[in-house]
Design goal:
Helix Hairpins, 11 helices, alpha/beta, rod-shaped, about 65% helix
């Protein structure tokens, strides 16, 4: 099995984008794609769940209202009995006071007690309803709120469901929006995954570096384009005994294939090829790669430039860049004869792995 280094670049971009937007429940690209495919079903499931929740809330409210009404009746009866009992005790005390006294002092005290008891009786009778309502106030407020909620659900069931589901639906829609922002990257990641799975079928003589990125300081002068190359990035760099394969993956639909311009990926891969050829050639000369020298001159590392289209490819051909479908990829790679030993292949890979930008 081919030896693989690094995660695919698109997958790294997707993970970073999701985490930056507070989305961390997806463990794989397939889970992200399933979320997109099942989005409408997820909305229906949320709506159905909240319909059930509101229906259950209505049933629960009805039971609680009946229980509260009974409880209020019981509390009211208990409060009435308590106040009436207090009045009875006060009146009994009043009637129990002696009517005749042997001296004026005792008579004065008794009259004073009568006045106090009559005031208490008057206050208790005057505040009967207020005390009764105060003892039931909390229960009545709770009953009023539950009754209001029950009538609202009964009259505006759909609105109650929408309000209940609002936060969950908004969060679902937010996730969908965040994911759709990188839809092209997701399709790119799907394509890169397919290419990696195909390349993994190769033997362990092959070494694959995904998302290869490197910077150059000072920049490399590109005489072909008459500009300077500061950095390069490739979806895949495959190192083999027959040389290096620079691979760009495009997961384009037929419509995109007919409308998108191949200039950008073709130029990207040509610039990367020029830069890598320059630094590798210099290091062969400096013997950094520990290549076995040949009597008739300095060896060269062949660099093949590939653009892999997952399903189909255009009819046009491009100079110095091979356009392949996924099914053609392994056949093309295996076509070339080996020119490096296993150790030399590993030396190339080690150098590129150290050279890449972290």
């Amino acid at each position: 099995m081919c030896r693989v280094y690094n995660s695919i670049g698109c997958l790294t971009v997707i993970k970073s984008h999701l985490l930056n937007n507070g989305i961390n429940e997806f463990k794989s690209l397939n889970e992200v794609r399933n979320f997109q495919k099942n989005y409408d079903i997820a909305i229906q499931e949320i709506e159905s769940k909240h319909i059930s929740l509101i229906e259950q809330e209505k049933i629960t409210l009805n039971d609680e209202i009946v229980q509260l009404q009974e409880s209020i009746k019981t509390k009211k009866a208990e409060a009435e009995n308590q106040i009436k009992s207090e009045l009875t005790n006060l009146k009994y005390c009043l009637e129990s006071l002696p009517k005749n006294h042997s001296n004026l002092a005792k008579e004065f005290i008794t009259d004073l007690k009568k006045i106090i008891l009559r005031i208490k009786i008057w206050v208790t009778e005057s505040n009967f309803d207020r005390r009764l309502n105060h003892s039931l106030q909390k229960s009545i407020e709770i009953l009023s709120k539950k009754d209001f909620r029950y009538k609202f659900i009964d009259s505006y069931f759909k609105i109650a469901v929408d309000e209940s589901a609002l936060l969950e639906l908004d969060e679902l829609k937010r996730k969908k929006f965040v994911i759709d922002e990188i839809n092209n990257t997701i399709y790119g990641a799907l394509g890169e995954q397919k290419v990696v799975k195909e390349l993994e079928k190769l033997s362990d003589d092959f070494i694959l570096i995904n998302d290869f990125t490197c910077s150059f300081n000072p920049p490399i002068y590109n005489r072909n384009e008459r500009d300077y190359i500061k950095s390069v990035q490739m979806d895949h760099v495959l190192i083999s005994s027959s040389g290096i394969f620079l691979i760009e993956t495009k997961n384009w639909s037929e419509n995109s294939l007919n409308n998108l311009d191949f200039y950008s990926p073709v130029q990207q891969i040509k610039r990367a090829s020029f830069a890598l050829n320059k630094i590798l050639s210099e290091n062969i000369t400096q013997s950094i790669l520990n290549f076995k020298r040949l009597n008739w001159g300095t060896r060269k590392i062949p660099i093949k430039r590939l653009i892999v289209l997952i399903n189909q490819k255009p009819t046009e051909e491009f100079q110095h860049v091979k356009i392949l479908t996924l099914n053609e990829l392994l056949g093309y790679i295996n076509y070339f004869e080996p020119s490096f030993s296993r150790d030399e292949t590993q030396n190339i890979a080690n150098y590129l792995l150290k050279f890449q930008t972290k």
